[in-house]
Design goal:
About 40% of the residues lie in helices and about 20% in strands. It is an alpha+beta fold and about 350 residues long. The strands form 4 sheets. Strands 2-1-3-4 form a 4-stranded antiparallel sheet, with no helix packed on it. One of its GO terms (biological process) is iron-sulfur cluster assembly.
Length: about 350
């Protein structure tokens, strides 16, 4: 029986994720790839890849005398020659899953790869390493090695999601930052892993884990180049002591939720003194919107809405005794309010 095998391995002086694929001419059922995740501690240096091609070719018409004997040729690749590896790994992975026609078989293969992914240390199972947006809990850790390549570690409390992580780690672990950032979600669509009815969840998992890997890569590159760190994922941490925003968007949200009390007091004083009504479009600076919302409690003639109802609100304010109307929005909004006030008989 003739068969050939090819694998990309790394010498024992460094850690890597290896790919080993076997194809048999007498058996159409695909064999799973064998992933070797992080065989060496993460603090060891990388060196170079070796590509091995092993072929067993018995004489025609006879069986091999030693089924385990192989003739091997090895080629040492320079670092610049290894850039093809992530695309090749992904192509091999896609071909494997496409050869499995039944969705259940793909899921079984995914579970097999999940069993090969080493468990993530408890020290890495932190909130800062969580991958947001996945149905299951997913953790992702990343570091840049001494050669500038990115090393990934991942885990999940869902075996299927863990299988997704295993596939992505096997493809991108040890790749350069450019290679990690070049991979697109569309490149993973051909894998089409999942049971009927769960496709959207599976696609989201691929997308969220990949995006997290790329965000971590950008942050590591920025750290190496001593650049300003990237914006954190926008979030509001609410505790008994108050609100702690993370990211500029979250900071804007916090300003809306906790407006400046002095500015609110000053605004209410001016509006009451001069009998001013305010109609504002809801697309505005969150800090301004927060102050207006807080001022509404003391001065009811403040209305935040869509442009279609701003003019009607202005008419009601005038009828309630407001002498002036302030419009917060673009030009056509103030023109529309002016026209509706004129039509209602409030020309002054």
């Amino acid at each position: 029986m003739d068969f050939s095998s090819s694998m990309a391995i790394k010498p024992s002086s460094s850690s890597c994720s290896s790919l080993f694929a076997i194809s048999r001419t007498q058996n159409s059922r695909p064999k799973p790839l064998l992933f070797n995740f992080h065989g060496i501690p993460r603090n060891h240096q990388n060196s170079f890849f070796k590509s091995l091609k092993c072929i067993q070719s018995p004489p025609p018409g006879s069986l091999p005398s030693n089924p385990t004997s192989f003739s091997c040729s090895a080629v040492t690749l320079s670092p610049t020659q290894t850039s093809y590896l992530p695309p090749r790994k992904l192509s091999t992975l896609v071909a494997e899953f496409q050869s499995l026609l039944e969705p259940l078989d793909r899921v079984k293969r995914l579970l097999h790869y999940a069993s090969l992914l080493p468990p993530l240390p408890a020290s890495s199972r932190t909130d800062s390493n969580r991958v947001m947006g996945c149905t299951a809990r997913v953790w992702l850790d990343a570091q840049m090695d001494s050669e500038g390549n990115i090393r990934f570690w991942a885990d999940s409390d869902s075996e299927i999601t863990k299988g997704f992580c295993a596939c992505l780690v096997s493809v991108l672990d040890g790749a350069g930052p450019e290679e990690v950032l070049q991979l697109k979600t569309e490149d993973l669509a051909a894998l089409n892993v999942g049971l009927p009815g769960g496709e959207r969840s599976r696609v989201n998992t691929w997308h969220n884990v990949l995006i997290s890997m790329q965000k971590r890569t950008r942050a590591l590159v920025a750290q190496k180049e001593r650049k300003t760190p990237f914006e954190p994922f926008p979030s509001l941490v609410i505790t008994a002591e108050g609100i702690q925003p993370k990211g500029t968007y979250a900071e804007a949200q916090a300003r809306y939720l906790s407006p400046d009390k002095l500015k609110v007091k000053e605004l209410v004083h001016v509006l009451k003194e001069k009998q001013i009504g305010v109609v504002a479009h809801f697309y505005m600076d969150p800090e301004v919107q927060g102050i207006l919302t807080a001022a509404q409690k003391e001065w009811p003639h403040i209305h935040i809405s869509d442009s279609l109802v701003m003019a009607d609100s202005a008419v009601k304010m005038v009828k309630s005794g407001c002498k002036f109307i302030t419009v917060l929005g673009v030009d056509f909004m103030s023109e529309n309010v002016r026209a509706i006030l004129d039509q209602a008989g409030f020309g002054e």
